Fold this protein.
Amino acid sequence: MTDVLARLTPRRLLQASIAVALVTIVLKTAAWWITGSVGLLSDALESLVNLAGATFGLLMVTIAARPADDDHPYGHHKAEYFSSGFEGVLIVVAAIAIVWAAAGRLQAPQPLEQVGLGLWLSILSSVFNGVLAWVMLRASRVHRSIALEGDARHLFTDVWTSIGVVVGIALVGITGWLWLDPAIAILVALNILREGTRLVWRAAQGLMDEALDPELQSTIERTLAAFARDAVRFDHITTRKAGQRRFADLHMHAPAGWSLGRAAVLRGEVEQALMAAVPGLRVTIQLLPTDVEALSVEEKDAT
């Protein structure tokens, strides 16, 4: 399964997301037109957001794949965070629009028409979104792509929106309580508002050079511990992540009596071990004699 997901590149999956968004827009708009349900209208609005988000995500993934150049020596990987943040903002805007539309309908409830057909159209679109979201979320872990993850989670919020809307319309049909339709729409909007806020927060953390996850930092420390012998030690270990790329900077202290060649060979072995232990890791190791301590960033700034 992992091999299959590896062949499904972020570009291909986002292209598929655009295609599915177009299909679901047609299905959900038709469902809203047939029934007059504000809940289905909110569902259709979120599909428009899906289309915009997937299109912007495809653009950012394309930029992120560009190689490093003179102006961007560390690459363009952070472009994916803009995609995730943009999707989060779109989700928040869609949630506000849904609440606005539902509030008016809550004050003046209207009867629904041809509920059965509308529900089937909504369910069909949810199946498309659910399958694609599941594949994209698993692929995002293989490719370490926050753009894919953001789009997948956005699609999952769309699925939950559709489920909430379907339940609300079904309850209206059973109870005759017309206010349930806009009430469910507002509850669904609050749920996707939470997801949108979460995506914006994650994108902001990535743009601020967030450190690697604790599990990966532990892997780095265990790998370094295997080389900590013959008076060799490591310190000032700092990590950060930028899209699919991960970075680690550290100091390696070796005995002053060692030749530069011997120390460089060991440094190369350490770099290879770290990159093998943490996929996508770029390592920068500064060589220092054992009895020399380098100034930290904070100490340099203070001088």
Notes: The longest helix spans residues 146-175. The chain has two domains: 2-207, 214-302.
